[in-house]
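User: Could you walk me through two proteins back to back? I'd like the raw sequence and the structure tokens for each, with a short line separating them so I can tell where one ends and the next begins.

Assistant: Of course. Protein one, sequence then structure:
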Amino acid sequence: MVALEEAVGTAREMVRFAPPRRGARSVLERHARTLPHVDFAVRNAGVLARHALRYSRSRLVAPDGLIAAVRELAQAVWALAGAYDDPRGAEEATNHARIAAARAREAFEQEPDLALTEIIGQVRSTAVDVMRAAEVVAGAVQTVDELPTEEMLAAPPAAPPD
């Protein structure tokens, strides 16, 4: 994370002092403001991977709902990556993340296994981090850290555009 923060600092200096690069300010700031949330998402994804590896080594079969939740979370990450170029894509990232969290909860409700609880918790935590980053990318007026996690996850996904 330190190297990324240093790179952002260098880029800010370049944008400030190089006239041809001044147009990149908004894109750079969009990246910079999301760094804490992306860092949390990366950390949570690492913990998710460790829990999933431990679970798979136990030779237990993960419920289909959990597999769908992880796939949806992956779609959220891809949509967030695209939103940096086009902030209108942030809503898609938020929707995928919200669906991932809901599917993870449903998987737990159908099969309340203690070993799955760790994985489900990490899917939900990572989804929240992606949602917070997406809101920053979209230019949310309200500070995203002010919204309680459960309130964020409880909101219905936005309807897809026609």
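----
Protein two, same layout:
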Amino acid sequence: MTKNTRPVDIRAVFRAVQREFSRHRVPVVDLVEMQTKDPFKVLVTTILSARTKDETTTEASKRLYAEVRTLDELEKVPVRRLEKLIFPVGFYRTKARHLKKLPAELRARFGGRIPDSVEELVQLPGVGRKTANLVVAVAFGKPAICVDVHVHRICNRLGYLRTQTPFETEMKLREILPVDLWIAFNSCLVSFGQHTCFPVNPRCDRCVIAAHCNRVNVRTKYPPKSFA
């Protein structure tokens, strides 16, 4: 909770966005986990998904996994081929180089296993805290808080937090967010941010959490009906 705002019932907020989430498509990383139960594919898909639309990541993943299903197979694929398979994901050349290095790094550091902690995962090429937290939560079902721009934006608009960066948001959520909400928090808020709480002109008029939101620094052509 921040100064000069109403208290935010985060459980009520979560229940509302979770109901809304059930009506939308499942994010690609969650879908991979449900379909494969494979931490390797969850990790690779999460690396591909950074700064890339889910639709693009889905198609790139299909092409990649038609040829690459294991760490050994990934190691044999040339960088140029990886670039072709994953194009046009964001920063595809950089991601192809990271993927090419991944098998050797996993063997050298972790005996070829996919690690299940944030501290270990961030040692891998192309893996930052957001990716690491998502892999821990999705692939291993362990409590982790993945914070991207959607989670950061929504938490601050709500007035639940007052933070300047996604990293600050992650650290603060670790202090105050109930642990049982950690795993699903990202998926639900990302979906909500993609469908309703847009960066520009959020659709407050159809928002399922308008009654809980302090609307901090929100400017929109679509105010909630009670404010219209």
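The chain is about 55% helix and 0% strand.

Let me know if you want the two compared in more detail.
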